[in-house]
Amino acid sequence: MPLLELIGLSVCVDNKRIVEDASLSLNSGEVHVIMGPNGSGKSTLLSAIMGLRNARVCGGSILFNGLDITNTPSYERAKLGIALAHQSPPEIKGVRLRDVASAMAKKYGCSDCTLLAKNLFVEPFMNRSLFVGFSGGERKKTELFLVMLQDPKLAMLDEPDSGVDVESIEVIARVIESLRSRGTGVILVTHTGAITEKLSRIDKVHVLIDGRIAYTGSPDVVLPVVFKFGFRKGLEVLSRGV
Amino acid sequence: MSTRERALSAINKPAPYGPDIDLSKYRLDEPGVEEASELDSTVLNAASRVGLESTGLAYVQSNERALYTAMAKALEKYSVLVLPTREALTRKPHARSLAWKLLDPASDKYTAYAYLYGGELGYFIYVPPGIRVPIPIYTCLAITTNNTIQFTHNIVYVDEGAEAHLVTGCAIPHGVKDGVHIGISEFYVARNARLTFTMLHAWAEGLHVRPRTVVSVEEGGEYVSYYVTYSPVASIQTYPVVYLGRNARAYLASIIASSGRGVYDIGSKAVLEGPGSSAESISRVVARDESLVYTRAELEALESDTRGHIECLGLLLSPSAAISSIPIITSRKQGAILSHEAAIGLIADRELDYLMSRGFTEEEAKAVLVRGFMNIDAPIPTSIKKQVDYILDLVAKHAVG
Predict the structure, then answer these.
(1) What is the pLDDT of residues B172-185, one digit of tens each?
(2) Do B385 and B303 sit in the same domain of this protein?
(3) CATH number of A8's domain
């Protein structure tokens, strides 16, 4: 049984259809990459899988470990083992990272979150208000830290490599490798593809254009074409057969 | 006209703000002072609502009974004098020279009643020059019976270069439904002295609360006030005034979690009298049910080279609650810099959604956000901050029901 199955999923934001008829299947321990141009619906797709209220499912269904979670609230999905590293998490004044992390550690039974914080270099901002004044790299590392605290079965990382330095990309890649090695399924949304070069294994790449999964293939086939021709022209090349 | 005659003339004078209370409907008990080796369970119940423990209390007042405690004696080793005001006025000329000097008994009917019928209960605290009291001085004012008026007259004098941290919890135990609390406070902060005053309130739906406070801060002195109220109340109206001398500073923070159908009219005024003086007034309001909250904050600069800032933020948790923020800044000299900001809003959906995606239920996420909203970096000692944090955790839970 796949860990995650999307069956003809359509997602609406403010009554506008952003994702159309998306289907994919991901097994435990697999790493799938979703790529696509700006505004193609990548983040909306992840929001819908996570159950965020602004991304309303307006067609199709989401199965997690065989369970239909299409109408399950996000906090229940989190408890089932789904975690999302948000692309642009909100600044929450007054709520310290330490307080959220400690409440989550209790919820998810994390025993060594201090070590985790150290390994992800988030210790220096544990006493700061969540994401207030954080740099791009600090935001990404904090999001990964919180995802790791959840010890998820499915981790979705929304553009973890955007706006971060080379060292941070190394850290993020190590986290993805660690997730995969423990059997976590990973969906990685990337705009630039920078992170893909650092990963030892990617199982599938999905190209999302205008809200549709326009192509799914192996990384060896898809990535060189996308890097060389871009998304739209690359899709033509891929469709003709490389 | 004598002070007594002036007080009598003000016996029906309403306060400028807040609902007017007919005090004649309430019982006036005979005031008394006694030594207490143990506190009864109703007082302990009230104290626990504001996070106070019986062993650490220097002064306790239950209704119209002032109780000495062992801690008052323990504070003597730091040369700190803690006495019921009534005792102090009899035995200490210094106390007499301070009573009713900052506050006019004829200010309104509440001060007049306190002057005429209060019996001068309350605490008198004196901290000698240069003494930095290492432990907080805890006091508790409790109302344990229905339909009564509790009066308290508190006088605090922190002498030159001294420092003290005072925590006062005002509460009633569960089960007491109505009454009136009138608290008169006159605080003196001498040259280069520092007083932090943390006031924690936990009342009940039928209680009317009328604190009347004036603070004088001399040159180089600092006064920090941190006020938290988190329970339902019939009405509370307070408007403490702080006078600041040359280079004196004040930090006035209020955390108000309103509920029920209560009227919370809570303000403060800082008068920047001395050059170089400064004041900051911060409030956070979380309003639910049908409560009505007015936050008044006023800064008045009488000298140049003075600074002041007001920040009032409110969070509405119910469509039937209301918050009015009323900042006033008045400058009477060029060179004074005064500013204010005020904002009232709802819990942001995006923040709520974010926390829910981390596994918090909607109620848990709201409590986290409300708790965060009330976090302010007040300059209070760590030991008190711990206690305040405990109370704010309660406030957050209470605020989201």
Answers:
(1) 877 888 999 999 99
(2) no
(3) 3.40.50.300
Please give the structure tokens belonging to residue B196.
Answer: 């932090």
Which of B350, B353, B355, B358 to mutate to test binding with chain A, by most A CBs within 10 Å of its CB?
B358
Mean pLDDT of chain A: 94
User: What pLDDT band is residue B99 in, cutting at 50, 70 and 90?
Assistant: very high
Q: Shortest CB distance from B353 goes to which of A52, A77, A99?
A: A52
Q: What is the pLDDT of residues B209-249, one digit of tens each?
A: 999 999 999 999 999 999 999 888 999 999 999 999 999 99
d(CA B253, CA B390): 17
The interface predicted TM-score of the complex, written ipTM, equals: 0.95
Contact A100 B358 (CB under 8 A): yes
User: What is the bridge-based pairing of β-strands B32-35 and B65-68?
Assistant: parallel
pLDDT at A87 over 70: yes
Considering CB atoms only, which of B356, B364, B376 is closest to A74?
Answer: B356
Residues on chain B touching A75 (C-beta within 8 angstroms): 356-362, 365
Domain count, chain B: 2
Would you call B41 an interface residue with chain A, using a CB distance cutoff of 8 Å?
no
| pTM (2 d.p.) | 0.87
- Do B121 and B224 have their domain in common? yes
Backbone angles phi, psi at A136, to 5 degrees: -55, -45
B268 and B120 co-located in one domain: yes
B281 and B392 together in one domain:
no
* Domain extent for B88: 3-347
Helix, strand, or coil (residue A7): strand
Q: Are residues B361 and B326 in the same domain?
A: no
Q: What is the arithmetic mean of pLDDT over B70-90?
A: 88
Residues B103 and B121 in one domain: yes
Q: What b/e readout covers A14-28, taking b as 16+ CB neighbours within 10 angstroms?
A: eeeebbbebebbbeb
